[in-house]
Amino acid sequence: MGKETLHLLRLQNHDIYEQLLLEEALLRATDQNWCIINHGSPPRIVMGISGKIEKLIDYDKMTSSPIPLIKRYSGGGTVIVDSDTLFVSFIFQKEIHSFPCYPEPILRWSEEFYQEALNIPNFHLRENDYVIGEKKCGGNAQYIKKNRFVHHTTFLWDFKQSYMDYLLHPEKTPKYRDGRSHESFLCRMNDFLPSEQSFFEAIQKTLGLRYNVQEASINDVSLHLGGNHRTTTCQIII
């Protein structure tokens, strides 16, 4: 039996807002399987679909030195991204995998994929996060519909503490965080891999072992924007 076809879109410093709009179009307007990888974005704060601004964002900091705020179409927590963030998004038809299409099995599949691809000792899934040892290196969000699902991740190649200060300590946090500040809870992937390029090369190599990978251009994908599909990704003005 042949490999399933996976379309690969590679982006560089693409605004995460535009990326999320692309993802939502591909999710809702196509039945193709996709992987989107993107290295860096202008600084943005991205909230899950049900996020509450007053509980997640430092209002005084946002009003004195604003950063664009986005609400994405998927669930999950709030992240702040910039030029040092690495993004990997999977959009799949449910039928091409053997695991049940529920959050936990999808997370377990993704954990195994990244363990194989990155080969970082002590990289594993902890609750809903990717961690190295006891520190978070990547945050996940998902969207599951009748025939399709999205699993997308922001990996911290590096981060600026001044940006992390925009985020309040949320009411609901992973148990393993154990009250730690952002600085003591997070780790940088540049301490474990030689370059951003090596990260993406490892992802692409592992994709090639599992799927029939066909590269796509931004022009190919942009054709799906502006259709009649529902769009819930939006920018928020505060």
Task: Give the biggest beta sheet.
Answer: 8 strands, mixed
CATH-defined fold name: BirA Bifunctional Protein, domain 2
Q: Helix proportion of residues, in percent? A: 25-40%
Strand content: 25-35%
Mean pLDDT score = 94
Q: How many strands appear in the DSSP assignment?
A: 12
What's the CATH class label?
Answer: Alpha Beta
H/E element order: EHEEHHEEEHEEEEHHHEHE
How many separate domains? 1
CATH superfamily grouping = Bira Bifunctional Protein, Domain 2
Which architecture would the CATH scheme give at its second level? 2-Layer Sandwich
Cα-atom Rg, whole angstroms? 17 Å
The span between the termini is 53 Å
Number of helices: 8
Strands of the biggest beta sheet: in what spatial order? 7-8-9-10-6-2-1-11
InterPro entries: aa-tRNA-synth_II/BPL/LPL (IPR045864), BPL_LPL_catalytic (IPR004143), Lipoate-ligase_2_inactive (IPR053264)
Protein name: BPL/LPL catalytic domain-containing protein
